[in-house]
Amino acid sequence: MAEAIINRNVALTEFDRALADYEHAYDPVPDEALKFVPSGEDYTLGGLAVHVADVIYHYDRVFDLIHGSGFQQVRAIDPEDDAKRNRDRLIHDGFSGERTGVFREVKEAHDALVSRLRALSADDFARAAPVLYGPDAQEPYDTRPADIVGWLRDHYVEHTDQVGQLLGRWRSERNETTSSPR
After folding, report:
1. Residue 24: beta bridge partners?
2. How many domains does the chain contain in total?
3. Which residues lie below 8 Å from residue 73, measured CB to CB, with a gap of 6+?
4. CATH number of the CATH domain containing 72
């Protein structure tokens, strides 16, 4: 069991580190770039931060269902409420003056989930529950709280890299449109 506690603590520490790296990826991003969405991308540069919060909320609900059911089979369906619709709008439209609030929301959602996961026993952190993802799912997918942490950590890493790439594309396109022909 001591190994499970260490693994849980390591996993949560890595999860926290991935969030910090993700947040810092936005340090060089000017506000005017937050509404940028290059062709071929689904999200604005700023919308990625809202998307990250949205995914945390999704898996927080999955965790609630798993834990609340005593690790029995559950069906995970995200609600379509005003908060979700607003996040979807920000994901696709971006934002400019709301940076602090958006990143505070990501951090608060992250911290709340981490706090609840730290309160789990080491055995429950590694315990699987069958989850049906979506209204039409027929086959459950075994999901552990440890899996949720890993998926969210990997999600941060994926989008940390993407922030840098999108910032580079924004700068490139901006330079192309602002440079004068010779």
Report:
1. none
2. 1
3. 129, 130, 131, 132, 140
4. 1.20.120.450
CA nearest to 122, candidates 13, 3, 4: 4
pLDDT tens-digit map of 81-92 = 888 888 888 888
Q: In a 3-state reduction of DSSP, which class is residue 150? A: helix
Does 180 have pLDDT greater than 50?
A: no
Q: Using the 8-state DSSP alphabet, how is residue 107 labeled?
A: H
> What's the pLDDT tens digit per position in 43-65?
889 888 889 999 999 999 999 99
Model confidence band, residue 3 (pLDDT cutoffs 50, 70, 90) = low
160: containing domain: 2-171
Residue type, 164: G
Domain membership flag for residue 178:
no
- Helix 99-118 crosses helix 2-25 at what angle (to 10 degrees)? 180
What tokens were used for 78? 């995200």
Percent helix, strand and coil across the chain, each to the nearest 5: 65, 5, 30
In a domain, 177, yes or no: no
Q: Which amino acid is at 125?
A: F
Region of 71 (left: φ > 0; alpha: ψ -120 to 50; beta: rest) is left
Query: What are the two backbone dihedrals, phi and then psi, of residue 57, each rounded to the nearest 5 degrees?
Result: -60, -40
pTM score, two decimals? 0.88
